[in-house]
Amino acid sequence: MLRFKSLGSGSSGNTTLIEGRSGTTTRRLLIDCGLGIRTIAERLGEAGNAIAQIDAIFITHEHSDHVGCMEKLALRHGIPVWMSHGTYTAIGEPELHGLLRIAHHNEAIDLGGAFEALPFAVPHDAREPLHLRCSDGSHHVAVLTDLGHASSSVIPYIAGCQALLIEANHDVGMLQSGRYPAFLKRRIGGANGHLANEQTGELLRAINHPQLQRVVAAHLSAENNRPELARVALAEALDWSPDDIDIAYQRGGSPWIQVG
Ligand SMILES: [Zn+2]
Ligand SMILES: [Zn+2]
After folding, report:
1. Distance, CA 237 to ligand 2 centroid (Å)?
2. Cβ neighbours of residue 143 under 8 Å, at least 6 residues apart?
3. Nearest ligand, measured from the Cα of 61
């Protein structure tokens, strides 16, 4: 069994909890620490968990809405932290006292037998960003919050998943007509920025298959998107009803999404 829950997603901070269970073994992985330490503790509590139950942390890339309180959380609770070497360099190589684990593109991380996490490279304006596909052998989920375009290189990693948490950052019209300065519009809309709703739809169209049961739209811009626009664009790509698309909100996150 695999399940995940966004604890909060958006430009102010991102954290996702993934839990795998096999027999009597349960393992929990926290993807990104972009929410403050107190918020993470509170939202884990609401989800029926505590920081002490987290087995490992995975940091996708160096942007502050993802790294957040990683150092404090890891050191205070002795939790191992996985990230790419590029991410580690980009955050200034903090002393993690033996807790650092270097992740590589396409090299699986074993989460103590309950499930494995496979990091994969994505196009984004960070040093060496990696996102994750998690599998318990028969069930697969992928979490990808920051990528600049619907790159065909990510399709093999998200294909065949029963559930996805995927970025739907902005509506192109809202971004273009919005109040952001031109340079920021270019960065967000560029090939290494963030996915527009239509681009997320493009990826979903490419991987649409009968096993896909749940899709959570994440990293929505509070300024340049609205949940209903993301829902409509993603549902249209899958030929689903907009109500079938879940949203990971900045405050509140997403519901638990379980496969298996
Ligand atoms: Zn980013
Ligand atoms: Zn981000």
Report:
1. 23
2. 4, 16, 18, 31, 131, 132, 134, 164, 165
3. 1
For ligand 2, the distance from its centroid to the CA atom of residue 219, given in whole angstroms, is 7
Least distant ligand from the CA of 9 = 2
Query: What's the confidence (pLDDT) of residue 192?
Result: 97
| φ, ψ of residue 239 in degrees (nearest 5) | 60, 40
- Residue 235, domain member (yes or no): yes
- Report if residue 68 sits inside a domain: yes
Number of independent structural domains in the chain: 1
CATH number for the domain that contains residue 81: 3.60.15.10
Tell me how far apart the alpha carbons of residues 168 and 79 are, in angstroms, rounded to a whole number: 30
Report yes or no on 260 lying in a domain.
Answer: no
Cα of 230 from ligand 1 centre, angstroms: 19
What's the pLDDT tens digit per position in 110-147? 999 899 999 999 999 999 999 999 999 999 999 999 99
CA of 126 from ligand 1 middle (Å) equals 7
Task: Name beta bridge partners: 108.
Answer: none
Q: Ligand 2 centroid vs 13 CA: distance in angstroms?
A: 7
Dist. CA 256 → ligand 2 center (Å): 21
pLDDT tens-digit series, residues 80-107: 999 999 999 999 999 999 999 999 999 9
> Is 41 domain-assigned?
yes
Tell how far the Cα of 170 is from the centroid of ligand 1, in angstroms. 14
Domain with 235, as residue range(s), is 2-253
